[in-house]
């Protein structure tokens, strides 16, 4: 399934995190998208984003994307804000809760899909 609206990008992100679907997560990003992280800095492109998100899926993350606020920026661009909550599980079974206030820029592609151009899960933190 592809994101057909700006809201779908975040909904699908949550579903794919919860399913441990790394390929599906990476497919939500433009090939040269930027992911801003607190621990690994600014990452660009599918290879760097995949490597980072593999840690999320390895820790059996579960996430609640929270309520979304979408601000259209023309026909093919939107800014999405949401407050998320996640739980990571370490190899020894400990659970670590995380929260963030994300801001993302999503762009409609020529085939109609919406994808992340910029993903900053803690921009408003």
Task: Explain how this protein is built.
With 125 residues, the chain is an alpha+beta fold. The chain has one domain (6-120): Nuclear Transport Factor 2, Chain: A (Roll), CATH 3.10.450. Helices cover 26% and strands 44% of the residues. It is built from three helices and seven strands; from the N terminus they run ααββαβββββ. Strands 1, 2, 3, 4, 5, 6 and 7 form a seven-stranded mixed β-sheet that branches. A hairpin with a 4-residue loop joins strand 4 and strand 5. It starts with 5 loop residues before the first helix and ends in a 5-residue tail after the last strand. 25% of the residues are buried. The model has no long low-confidence stretch (mean pLDDT 95).
Put the structure in a nutshell.
The chain has three helices and seven strands, in the order H-H-E-E-H-E-E-E-E-E. With 125 residues, it is α+β, with helices and mostly antiparallel strands.
* Chain oligomer state: single chain
Number of helices: 3
Question: Helical residue percent?
Answer: 25-40%
Q: What's the CATH topology label?
A: Nuclear Transport Factor 2, Chain: A
Low-pLDDT stretches = none
**What is the approximate shape?**
globular
**Mean pLDDT across residues:** 95
Please state roughly what percent of the residues sit in beta strands, choosing from under 5%, 5-15%, 15-25%, 25-35%, 35-45% or over 45%: 35-45%
Reported for the largest beta sheet, the result is: 7 strands, mixed
Radius of gyration: 14 Å
